[in-house]
């Protein structure tokens, strides 16, 4: 918990224990540390109430992201849009833009969505052909449900970065890491949406969107963990992304095999494996 004598957002002295909100800025007083109870309340509040400025929050995430996230965790939350709701809105916007501006209709390349098991010499109905078909269907579902997919992956992203930044485990608990990765994901979606529009004017921008998103995330973490050395932050961030990639691949494989088992049945699946 922050200092209960002053408002964590604007610094105005708190009148007494009976004061629940700052009369100047409206911030709840005193502000509590982010924990599971706080996240549950924020999720409920964020879905049914839109009381922050999304444009302001996006501008802050694009210009001073690390400082913005640190301030939010430490208690300065009134000016900011709810991170989960921001991801949902940006995910919907990016999905619509992708559908009309990209051939694939989404973030995933067309080459992966049009994998043909027959063209690869696989016998129709075989286990391998079914795996390829399920893999394609899983990617198509993720492509069509971008916001849901990103929100579902946030715990794994947070877990990966917390593992990589274990030096700061005492400074940020897991719920706070969830908030950090929510903001970083929203930032990435905003940048991707901007590049979707820019590539319509200059096609050369098409090859720079992923680079821009990664550069922004690295900048965010370097700024967030100052005065920790930037090159060490970069190495830990890279390690975290390796962990994250492993989690994503594992989840996709689990999903593919779950679909395969559901379509073939457990006995047939075991028979295929043994055969």
TrEMBL record:
InterPro entries: DUF3667 (IPR022134)
Keyword hit for Nucleotide-binding: no
Transmembrane segments: 84-102, 146-165, 177-198, 210-228, 240-266
Keywords attached to this entry: Membrane, Transmembrane, Transmembrane helix
Name listed for the protein in its UniProt record: DUF3667 domain-containing protein
